[in-house]
């Protein structure tokens, strides 16, 4: 029987059936036989030769399998050690290449999503043309460039027919698609110059409502030029003067109007308003200084009123008090919930560093999840315009175990087999990000989305909005400033069925309607 098995192994080796020969030759009695030892030597060399062929063809698992089989038959021969080292080097080189390629793909994707198409194209140029992810990004880049060119064409057409509102909308779309386009900057500058000139003319004519509407429509372009800042400041000051008049503080209105008259001499109506405010202040002071003031006690304050109203700090404090009087609701909490009818609920966190883990954990977490107690605690930190994931134990990002990773939009994070998060940055012009929960939710809420708020978040139609509301015809930009939530949009905004006070913002607990979309802000 032994000789028969040796003959069968020799026949298999001769016919090139090395795996069958290995199964027959690896038995101890075959290897102990003199004829079997010769067979083992020839078979080991044949396995080494085939392993080298697999290595040359890039079939490293098969090459390593042949190397291991030769080692089991012949021990650690120099040829076997050399083949094993060559396979290990090839695998490491491929892994390094894969990591570089993955890093390049991630960098290219980040640049493309930020609208920096030329930079993303340069990064993709270094990738192997056969890389599937690279081809996919090339296609996305081409689609974004085409969308950007189409939006710029609409903007040019709108400017030719003097439709600056349509030009602003088209330029906003072009910025989302291709923010680094040189023509985008040129067209944006033309639109801003046109709108600021017309808004300035509206201010000079006393049409402050029209000027304010024009400046609000510039919001999607996120322009921060000196002309824009000056006009916005003038409109704010006019609003402050109007508040002083309505609150029977004409002397403070005089102070503001005198300053505006010096800055904007082309607005002739300011001189008339200043004269009327001065007369009103004098008449009111005469009334307070007369017999009526003896009953109210105002007469004792008349002597000091003209002096105190000259103090800029007093004016600033008075404006702050007036603003507080207008705020009917509690101050916006550090973290809050945004409930949008027909869309869902969102937990909004403005912190740069956010800890995510199981609810009820002994460790502090900012986002407590209803998940298994052994769930690891991960941290997402915003550094400049990038987000980084940190975790003490490996978690899987795109099926790769990591403890630290630069996140790119679209990354899927698995804290466990069931609990998963999807990280997205919907809008290239905003660094606010979204965490979409899967297999879990937040305690005491059905919310499954978390907004990592940087400066603003966008409520509106399309995938570029942080809160997608396709019913809204134009986007609304929500900003947290000075402990209040403000809304900038072309749509009509009401709070408890009354027009929103632009200086007071959106109060907590109020019924807010932005165009056809309604929402409520509550404490988290």
Structure notes:
This protein is α+β, with helices and mostly antiparallel strands and about 525 residues long. The chain has 4 domains: about 90 residues, Serine Threonine Protein Phosphatase 5, Tetratricopeptide repeat (Alpha Horseshoe), CATH 1.25.40; about 140 residues, no CATH class; about 90 residues, Tumour Suppressor Smad4, CATH 2.60.200; about 100 residues, Sandwich (Tumour Suppressor Smad4). The strands form 2 sheets. The chain has a 15-stranded mixed beta sheet that branches. A 4-stranded mixed beta sheet has the order 13-12-14-15, with no helix packed on it. A hairpin with a 2-residue loop joins strand 16 and strand 17. Helix 4 packs antiparallel against helix 5, helix 4 runs parallel beside helix 6 and helix 10 runs antiparallel to helix 11. About 5% of the residues have low confidence.
Query: What's the helix count?
Result: 17
Alpha-beta classification: alpha+beta
Share of helix, binned: 40-55%
Task: Using the CA coordinates, give the radius of gyration.
Answer: 36 Å
Largest sheet: 15 strands, mixed
Give the end-to-end Cα distance, rounded to a whole number of Å: 80 Å
Overall morphology: elongated
Strand content: 15-25%
Strand segment count: 19
Mean pLDDT: 83
Number of domains: 4
Low-confidence stretches: 297-311, 323-328
């Amino acid at each position: 029987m032994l000789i028969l098995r040796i003959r069968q192994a020799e026949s298999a080796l001769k016919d090139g059936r090395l795996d069958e020969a290995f199964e027959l030759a690896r038995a101890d009695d075959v290897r102990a036989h003199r004829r079997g030892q010769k067979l083992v030597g020839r078979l080991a060399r044949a396995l080494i030769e085939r392993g080298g062929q697999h290595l040359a063809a890039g079939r490293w698992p098969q090459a390593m399998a042949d190397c291991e089989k030769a080692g089991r038959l012949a021990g650690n021969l120099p040829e076997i050690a050399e083949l094993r080292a060559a396979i290990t080097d090839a695998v490491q080189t491929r892994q390094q290449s894969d990591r570089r390629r993955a890093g390049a793909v991630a960098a290219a994707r980040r640049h493309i999503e930020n609208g920096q198409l030329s930079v993303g194209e340069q990064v993709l140029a270094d990738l192997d043309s056969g890389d599937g992810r690279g081809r996919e990004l090339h296609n996305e880049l081409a689609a974004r460039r085409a969308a950007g060119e189409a939006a710029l064409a609409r903007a040019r057409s709108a400017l030719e027919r003097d439709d600056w509102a349509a030009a602003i909308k088209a330029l906003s779309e072009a910025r989302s698609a291709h923010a680094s386009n040189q023509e985008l900057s040129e067209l944006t500058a033309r639109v801003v110059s046109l709108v600021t000139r017309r808004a300035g003319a509206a201010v000079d004519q006393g049409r402050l409502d029209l000027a304010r509407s024009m400046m609000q429509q510039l919001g999607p372009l996120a322009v921060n030029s000196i002309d824009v800042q000056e006009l916005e400041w003038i409109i704010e000051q006019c609003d402050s003067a109007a508040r002083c008049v309505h609150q029977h503080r004409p002397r403070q209105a005089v102070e503001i109007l005198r300053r505006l008259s010096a800055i904007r001499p082309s607005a002739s109506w300011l001189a008339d308003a200043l004269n009327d405010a001065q007369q009103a202040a004098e008449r009111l002071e005469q009334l307070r200084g007369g017999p009526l003031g003896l009953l109210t006690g105002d007469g004792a304050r008349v002597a000091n009123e003209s002096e105190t109203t000259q103090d800029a700090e007093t004016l600033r404090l008075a404006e702050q008090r007036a603003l507080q009087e207008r705020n009917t609701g509690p101050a916006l909490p550090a973290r809050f919930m945004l409930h949008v009818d027909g869309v869902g609920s969102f937990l909004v966190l403005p912190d740069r560093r956010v800890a995510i883990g199981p609810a009820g954990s002994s460790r502090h977490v900012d986002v407590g999840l209803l998940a298994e107690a052994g769930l690891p605690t991960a941290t997402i930190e915003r550094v400049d315009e990038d987000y980084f994931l940190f975790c003490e134990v490996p978690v899987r990002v795109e099926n790769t175990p990591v403890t630290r990773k630069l996140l790119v939009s679209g990354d899927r994070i698995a804290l466990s087999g069931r609990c998963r998060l999807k990280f997205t940055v919907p809008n290239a012009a905003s660094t606010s990000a979204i965490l979409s929960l899967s297999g879990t939710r937040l305690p005491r809420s059905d919310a499954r989305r978390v907004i990592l708020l940087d400066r603003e978040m966008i409520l509106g139609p399309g995938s570029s909005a942080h809160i997608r509301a396709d019913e809204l015809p134009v986007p609304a930009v929500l900003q947290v400033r000075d402990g209040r939530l403000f809304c900038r949009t072309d749509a009509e905004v009401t709070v408890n069925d009354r027009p929103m006070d632009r200086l007071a913002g959106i109060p907590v607990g109020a019924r807010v309607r932005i165009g056809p979309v309604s929402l409520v802000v509550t404490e988290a």
